Predict the 3D structure of the following.
Amino acid sequence: MAFTRRRFLGAMTAMGAGAARAAAQSRAGGAVKPRAGPSLCLYSQVLSKVDHVDLPMVLRGLGFDGCDLSVQPGGHVAPEKAGLYLMPALEALTGAGLDVPMITTALTGLDALAQEVLGLAGLIGVPFFRPGHWKMSGSPEVESRLAQVQREIAGLASLGRATGMAMGIHNFAGEPESAPVSAIDRVIRPLDPRWVGYDFDVGYASQGEAGAMNAALALALPRLKMVSLRDFQWAAAADGAAGGARKTTPCPLGEGVVEWPPFFAALARARFSGPISLQVDYRPKDELAAIRRDLQFVRKQMSAAYGAMGLGSGPTSGKGSGSGAG
């Protein structure tokens, strides 16, 4: 189903004159302003108990540059209600001086819901989106449908191009069937790198043999769009059997396995300037204090890495492959 201007204008009419007028004003006013360097964002699902009306104030208080807005089931904006709530949520964030460089979705196909969500986000100028997950490795059944996965990704990429939004596919691990960077590369290699790339999750990329993260990052960097941050510790299998499979336990940034200085040094060398999304998937006693601590850790790491490259005291002077879609 092709995305057309006529189809989108029809959807805007269905939304009502008030919402359409607000969307047009937001676009004309350039509500989402590009940054010169990486924008440190919080994945809003971390604060799922905070209403979208209060979200801007909380993010500003914590010290974030922007928001990775959850537009998915159970998120701050339910996708089926995007016509009513997505534009007000985006306007509230940008009106508070926050960037919204990306949204996270559960979209895995080209349908009317995808058209509405990306159409509205693209209208206000959000440059990146994270789609849903495709399992691409781990079993013959998964690998047998990679051609279908490629068609689904290509369909969303065509919609992303029509709405001015580049797609960053999220690598994930920890399940029998997963999507490591190497498997994603096999699927997206023929697709236009301006519109299809990676949301590189350094935590998941580190769940392999020594050096796995470095190899995965080297593969992803040429078409890196966004970055997701999480850390973990290795834990023995629950049954305690010798030689059993290890499990992962999420933990605060810097207290786990991820090798942060080399990771940020690689981003700085590449002059990466796309959004960086803090995930916080562990369960702290004091949630806000834990988020603030992780954010301070990231800022310190980025300042050291980007400063060492002569890009200023912080990351805001870098320009790189993640800075745009075109």
Notes: The longest strand covers residues 99-105. The radius of gyration is 19 Å. Residues 34-323 form a domain with the TIM Barrel fold (CATH 3.20.20.150). Residues 1-34, 313-326 have pLDDT under 50 and may be disordered.
